[in-house]
Specification:
By secondary structure, this protein is an alpha+beta fold. It has helices at 32-35, 73-82, 90-96, 101-109, 113-117, 124-134, 155-169, 174-187, 194-206; strands spanning 4-12, 16-21, 24-29, 47-58, 63-70. The protein has 3 domains: 4-70, OB fold (Dihydrolipoamide Acetyltransferase, E2P) (Beta Barrel); 74-143, 5' to 3' exonuclease, C-terminal subdomain (DNA polymerase, domain 1); 155-206. It contains 9 helices and 5 strands, in the order βββαββαααααααα. The radius of gyration is 19 Å and the shape is globular.
Length: 208
C-alpha cells in the first residue's frame, strides 16, 4: 500500500501528475479541487509531497493499481467519506470533486441538491443519496480554507500545453512545436481536446 509519495513533478496534466521517485515514475490522479492548489505546494526544485489513496481498479481481464493524490490528510479523509455513498466509487469521486471541498461539505450539510447536481457525474438521485448518507456528519470539512481557488486556465491553454508535451516527446524542438500548435489553433480555434489539436497539427503538416 502506497500511503505517501514525495518526488519531482515531471509532468502536470489536467487531472494527474507524473512524479519521479528514485528513478521510478508514478502517475498520480488528482481531484480538480486539489489540483487548484498544487502549484503553491511544489517547491523551487520541482518537488512535491502528496498523501495518497491507493486502490485497485478492477476490469474483466485485469486489475490496475491507481493512486489518488491529496495535499493533506483532511482532503483524503473527505474523499474516503464521500465514497461511502452508494454508487460513488473512487473514479466517480475523482470526477465529482471539482469544487472546493469546503463548499461541497457545506452543500451536503444544507441539503443543497442544486449545488450537488452541478458536480460532474452527480444527478438528482445521487445528490439526494449523498445528503441522506452524509448530512450532519461532515461539519469539520466545511472549515477547510480552500474557497479562494485560483481560476483554472482556459481549456485551450490546457490542451496546448498537453499537445506541446507530446510533440516534444516526439523529438520536435520546442519552438517548432509551439509554432505548429499556434497555426493549428488559428485554423481551428474551437478544438476541444488534445487529440483533436494533434490531429489538426498532423493535417497541416501533411498539407505542406
Amino acid at each position: 500500500m502506497i500511503a505517501r509519495i514525495c518526488g519531482k513533478v515531471i509532468e502536470k496534466g489536467s487531472n494527474h501528475l507524473l512524479v519521479e521517485v528514485g528513478g521510478i515514475v508514478y502517475q498520480v490522479l488528482i481531484p480538480s479541487a486539489v489540483m487548484q492548489h498544487l502549484d503553491e505546494n511544489i517547491d523551487d526544485k520541482g518537488q512535491i509531497k502528496l498523501i495518497t489513496y491507493h486502490y485497485l481498479q478492477s476490469e474483466p481481464a485485469k486489475s490496475t493499481p491507481i493512486l489518488v493524490g491529496f495535499l493533506n490528510e483532511i482532503e483524503k479523509e473527505f474523499f474516503e467519506v464521500f465514497i461511502t455513498v452508494s454508487g460513488i466509487g473512487p473514479k466517480a469521486a475523482l470526477k465529482a470533486l471539482s469544487q472546493p471541498i469546503s463548499l461541497i461539505a457545506q452543500a451536503i450539510d444544507e441539503a443543497n441538491t442544486v449545488f450537488l447536481k452541478s458536480l460532474p457525474g452527480i444527478g438528482e438521485q445521487r445528490a439526494k443519496e449523498i445528503v441522506a448518507k452524509l448530512q450532519n456528519k461532515i461539519g469539520k470539512f466545511g472549515l477547510i480554507q480552500d474557497k479562494e481557488l485560483k481560476r483554472p486556465k482556459p481549456q485551450g491553454a490546457d490542451i496546448e500545453e498537453e499537445a506541446l508535451a507530446v510533440l516534444m516527446q516526439l523529438e520536435y524542438k520546442r519552438s517548432e512545436a509551439m509554432s505548429m500548435i499556434k497555426k493549428a489553433m488559428e485554423r481551428s480555434p474551437k478544438l476541444e481536446n488534445t487529440e483533436d489539436l494533434l490531429n489538426e497539427v498532423y493535417k497541416q503538416k501533411r498539407s505542406r
